Input
Amino acid sequence: MNLRIPGPVPLPDEVLELVGSQMIDHRGPEFAVMLDRMTRNLKAILATAADAFFLTSSGTGAMEAGVVNTLSPGDRVLSISIGVFGDRYGLIAEAYGAEVTRLKYALGQAADPDDVRRILRDAPGCAAVVLTHSESSTGVANPLEAIARAVHDESDALILVDAVSSAAAIPIATDAWGIDVVATAAQKAWVAPPGIAMISFSDRAWKAYEAAKMPRFYFDVAQYRQYLQIGQPPFTPCLPAIYALDHSMQAIVDEGIEAAFARHHERAEQARDGVAALGLELLPERSVASDTVTAVKVPQGIDGRELVRRVREEHGVVLGGGQQALAGRIFRIGHMGWVERHHIDGALRAVAKTLAAMRS
Amino acid sequence: MNLRIPGPVPLPDEVLELVGSQMIDHRGPEFAVMLDRMTRNLKAILATAADAFFLTSSGTGAMEAGVVNTLSPGDRVLSISIGVFGDRYGLIAEAYGAEVTRLKYALGQAADPDDVRRILRDAPGCAAVVLTHSESSTGVANPLEAIARAVHDESDALILVDAVSSAAAIPIATDAWGIDVVATAAQKAWVAPPGIAMISFSDRAWKAYEAAKMPRFYFDVAQYRQYLQIGQPPFTPCLPAIYALDHSMQAIVDEGIEAAFARHHERAEQARDGVAALGLELLPERSVASDTVTAVKVPQGIDGRELVRRVREEHGVVLGGGQQALAGRIFRIGHMGWVERHHIDGALRAVAKTLAAMRS
Output
């Protein structure tokens, strides 16, 4: 199978071998050494000198951790959404009692920093801005640096970023851009299986933590900070993902994070060029297309669900379909983490052949 | 290494091989088949016809899910605690705003159903009773059936059970005893790696859900129920633990749950007999000792931390130490999941040799 969904990503053999390693004592010396190395590498990759933690959850758990550790019920939150995952961040804040203002864009568009600037100026007192960096439901990357600048220029709001499908693949200068919480997950560009999510947590976020009244226990970052001092997680961690992450994060650090970004950009360009060569259209403008997932419009007269099904069954290529409002209208090619040129070529060839068969 | 902590449990080769299997699409047909089979087996093993779900978290996440999906801030909760994990369930309820009454016992004791009966009679209106089944910090199993009877006799309270280190090893008749939420985790008697926790959710719990006002998103069971209808989890699941659980739960069902209980009892008896043969003393009375973990008093004049360290370094046997108030005062031998007679013998032999060396 050529697994080309936007995560979980396929894993190379040497990583799978580590995933299948025997269990160890997560409160023993071996784990402490691993956790120390992993924490240093995570902070290096996220370009932050602040805290960073590993949670046993999906990326959504890390997003929730960002919200519940920094906010109180009634706090005003600006939720910038360009798709399903942007919506989700607003829903999480709302579930915990935040007063959420929504800035929503048409599917396939990126957010405009000037809109953010205007909204924050017109309605001061926003406690946090939540947004998705790479919206994998539409294949769009938000201009995070410019949005962060707008937020800091116009407010004291915290910035909580769903970087689940962007971190380690698309540049994020966490400290330099003043991002307070970066939420991401092992099964994306980190080349590990699902089970572990990661968050960075800035000094400003810690200041907010002191006053934050949303309830929390499993995702309480103070517990993670306290246990980290003795080289342990507060709760039993997902060891298979830990083993893989330890290896894969070291590989990213050894390669150099800039090289990893360049590699992702190159594969994404290959995918976008290939889509154009097939006479197909991207959902977004190419200028805002994400380097981790390519969303392609299903041509007129073709059933998108059927296309994805046949590509899978007849060619062993697993594409992402469209979600919610885009169901049947787009297909998506994931290209984060371990991606060889032939993975992309193979996926595009399977799409071409299937479209030809469906049209004949 | 002979990993004899009370979880994560060591995994046999055939399970490790599955843990290291390639990633698949968790929204694809293959996963749906797996999730359906796993849900049926989970319900069979927990002896419930009600709902049961797989969460990507540690067991603590499943405990939190029980609380936040059934209760509202201000609800009165009786927390029965015989150790660290019993305390934790009360802390979770309190973190979310419940008014918690504590019934605490000395370390090494089991809870007395008559105390529960008296408290509930004296102070009516309790919304939920939370307790640990097998308290792995003290090696004690609570008389769950009798406690559940007392709760039902005296109140309408829900019963939320931390069965993290008991389910699939020590009998729990979820429906027959009227347990509303059973929380457990893959890395215990289920013979899988950490990363997935499981909960059962009774019809009474669903009724409570309708009125429950504690905030929740990642652990919202309604999302799990809704997605289960299309053969998916709401959030990306920990696939390595899923692969292992699917195999291991089928193995338990094929063996027969009664046989699995008997097997655990036999290994526990072996451990207890072995401890007695060494002239050592159990922390609890033998009659309430848990069948999944044996807690042993460190003899007078011996440094318990040093004992655990030397057993590990000199004999490759990883014991559990004492937690919190019991640090240095006890050591613990885990025997849940895949345990051969020689695993227990080897651990006891290592303890005997190390004690002899420390005394000489």
Chain A has two domains: 14-254, 257-359.
